[in-house]
Amino acid sequence: MDDNKIIENKALNIWEALIPVFGLVGLLAYNVLVYGDDALSGSNQFVLLIGAAIAAIVGFRNKVSYETMLEEVGNNFKSTTGAILILLFVGALAGTWLISGIIPTLIYGGLKILTPAIFLPATVVICAIISLATGSSWTTSATVGIALIGIGGTIGFPLGMVAGAVLSGAYFGDKMSPLSDTTNLAPVMAGGELFSHIKYMTLTTVPTIVVTIIIFTIIGLTRETTGNTDTAEILSAIDESFYISPWLLLVPLGVIFLIVRKTKPVVALLIGSLLGGLFAIIFQPDIVAKIGGSDTLTFESAYKGIMNALTVDTAVETSNATLNDLFTAGGMKGMLGTIWLIMCAMVFGGVMDAIGALSRISGALLSLADSTFSLFASTVVSCLALNLTASDQYLAIVVPGKMFSQAYADKGLAPENLSRTLEDSGTVTSVLVPWNTCGAYQSGVLGVSVADYFVYAIFNYLSPFMTLLFAAFHIKIKELAK
Question: Which residues of 333-365 are buried (b: 16+ CB within 10 A; e: fewer)?
């Protein structure tokens, strides 16, 4: 307990420990109801601070000093230093990979594989590739997803079926991409490490997406369709704006090689960002010059163009309006919202640590969870409950992650178990709830109601069952080093 900086306060009973949690969930639910998709712009972060204030009042009542609470908040901030650096480099990498043409090349290749006979599984694969490359399921569905909905409708597929395929692929990529904010957030909350988390997620995620693709293949082969999948306009727009070359794929392959060789994540992402900038100068000089504020590529415009891509918002316009939203990146600046959320969550978690609430809740959970499976099941249920009540996938990761991290450690389970379960049940199921920010956004963007695509979002509702299956049969459950 001392090693994990958890303070056990005997004065707290379970209901006192849960007061801040109930208060936080109630406030978050109302806040999302009022702000909708804009809740992440700052109001949710402030609600987390209010939750911390409620916890502090409970602490003061139980004679916990302000200095003790502040010390635990400081310890929490210290523990997230590496994760915050990784998030900043992820934003930088996304910027240079866009202007270098790496992301457009991946999208171009994905659209090339689209044929009428395998439209549904191809849709899953295309959206998975694009979401892996961009780290965003929202951007994928709002761009290529809309195009695929239109193509699927002309062929004769029900729009709900196509939307389910789009979201299955998009959330697979979002979940597995190191560029994704939720993929970075889950290991931070669980106390793990990014690439170890991604590697461990493949154990449940890959079988789930394989099953999803098989089901969509069977549906596609047994259903009569009419028309053609015309992606010529989109491919032409990409070709006009970027120099597309397989040589550009050397950069992501190089980063993957570094990760496999167990290079530190910060180092691998830094190298990937710099290589992206170098390839941008070589392959896309006109784009770099334009972002640098010049018509010609000079040393100064190249420097400004790469630095802008690394740090602030950048966009590359094409002749296709659908693609313009896809070819944008926020650089390091784009990650500040997630970092802000993490910091406010750390304040709440630090105060909860200091007053002994997390220790008390963890003890109660362990007394109920008398097996590994029941602990995993409790996590899954908590994530689903947060998606239903707080209506936000980030909070479905933050709150259960902070509550359960000590319980997993006390069971001798590595943090990768918790971070994987948070993603398997918190990230992907958010889109299945109509009043959740993800469900509301995706149904609005795709023009398909949650009720219509629910049954076809196979990957999303199969994921929590897969993680429970692995827990039930104790398949690849990683334990803490002795």
Answer: bbbebbbbbbbbbbbbbbbbbbbbbbbbbbbeb
Q: Is residue 452 part of a domain?
A: no
Tell which of 334, 366, 383 closes a domain.
334
The total number of structural domains that make up the chain? 2
> Is residue 99, in this structure, part of any structural domain at all?
yes
Q: What pLDDT sits at residue 182?
A: 87
Give the integer Cα–Cα distance in Å for 325 and 315: 8
Separation CA 435–CA 441 (nearest Å): 9
Name the strand (E) or helix (H) holding 314.
Answer: strand 314-315
Q: 225: which 2 tokens? A: 């369709």
Q: Say yes or no: 315 and 352 in one domain.
A: no
CA distance 465 to 480: 24
> Domain check: are 236 and 166 in the same one?
yes
Q: What is the pLDDT of residues 397-428, one digit of tens each?
A: 887 887 788 888 888 899 999 999 999 998 89
Q: Round to whole Å and give the CA distance between 278 and 25.
A: 46
How far is residue 256's CA from residue 304's CA, in Å, rounded to a whole number? 28
What is the pLDDT, as a whole number, of residue 311? Answer: 93
Phi, then psi, of 218 in degrees rounded to 5: -65, -45
Alpha helices for 113-193 (secondary structure H): 119-134, 137-140, 146-155, 159-176, 181-190
Asked whether residue 171 falls in the same domain as residue 294, the answer is yes
Asked which of 334, 366, 399 is the last residue of a domain, the reply is 334
| CA dihedral sign of residues 169, 170, 172, 177 | positive
Q: What is the pLDDT of residue 1?
A: 41
Judgement on whether residues 141 and 250 belong to the same structural domain of the protein: yes
Domain range for 35: 14-70+336-436+458-472
Is the same domain home to 296 and 242? yes
Radius of gyration of the chain (CA): 23
How does strand 314-315 pair with strand 328-329? antiparallel
Q: Please state, in angstroms and rounded to a whole number, the distance separating the CA atoms of residues 231 and 134.
A: 20
Asked whether the beta carbons of 94 and 330 are under 8 A apart, the reply is yes
Q: How far is CA 44 from CA 31, 34, 385, in A?
A: 7, 11, 17
Q: Kindly report, residue by residue over 144-190, the tens digit of the pLDDT.
A: 787 688 677 666 788 899 999 999 999 999 899 888 888 988 998 88
Low-confidence stretches of the chain (pLDDT beneath 70): 1-11, 36-40, 79, 83, 110-111, 113-116, 142-143, 147, 150, 153-155, 225-231, 259-260, 322, 325, 362-363, 365-366, 369, 389-392, 435, 437, 482
Looking at the structure, tell me whether residues 19 and 53 fall in a common domain.
Answer: yes
Instruction: Assess whether 343 and 430 both reside in one domain.
Output: yes
| Contact present, 436 and 393 (Cβ < 8 Å) | yes
